[in-house]
Amino acid sequence: MKLVDTHAHLDLLKDANGAFLRAQEAGVGQIVTIGIDLDSSRLAAQYSRDMRGVFCTVGLHPHDASKSRPELWAEMKLLALTTPAVAIGECGLDFYRDHSPRHQQRDTFMQHVDLALDLGLPLVIHDRDAHEEVLRILQDKGAERVGGVMHCFSGNLDLAQELVKMGFFLGITGVITYKQAKELRAVVKQISLNKLLIETDCPYLSPVPFRGKPNEPAYVVHTNQALAKALGLPPEEVAAATTDNARRLFGLPYIDA
What pLDDT digit, counting tens, does each position of 146-167 carry? Predict the structure, then answer.
């Protein structure tokens, strides 16, 4: 069974082509590379055209919410339609670093939800230290109509259950391999396997045994193994389920193992 890395930043890797080939050798059949601003969204789109099995999203990271302009949204929409993109984002709120003013983060997040609803595409959500506000915006905007994934899920069980109730998936990164990630391992045990995705967030959040080194899509294999261990299930079963989940959410084509 081929794995899917549902959240990668190929444009931030030193050798994206090499990482792509290593991912294939490791059994990663599909990669969703994520846009975080207009330039990276364009690069993500290019990767999706050049590499078989790579798909893209378009979005503006909350760190750069202050860069939001009307003309940017027109270009994002055109890029999403013509590539085509499989989701809108990475978008959301980051109240940990606060690189953009919070009111601009909120406005930009809501514009992403509007775009996703307009195009009928799922959302890729970034949420750091803003759980309640992210959930409120998703609920107020009716985001359950398109669903999506809470990337690098870091909330508690209550948040997880609310998101799942809205049709969202939880993205599980290499963090689940970390010794201190006890709450995350406890949460995933209470969530249906058909609502979980695996991702790298490369080049960040490398799993053990690569922690401290640049992450890449091939390493999602280790996240799958750690998730399987936390769930008490065979890695092959978790791989099959998360791959099927990714295909359902993003509309990815089937690739024979």
Answer: 999 999 999 999 999 999 999 9
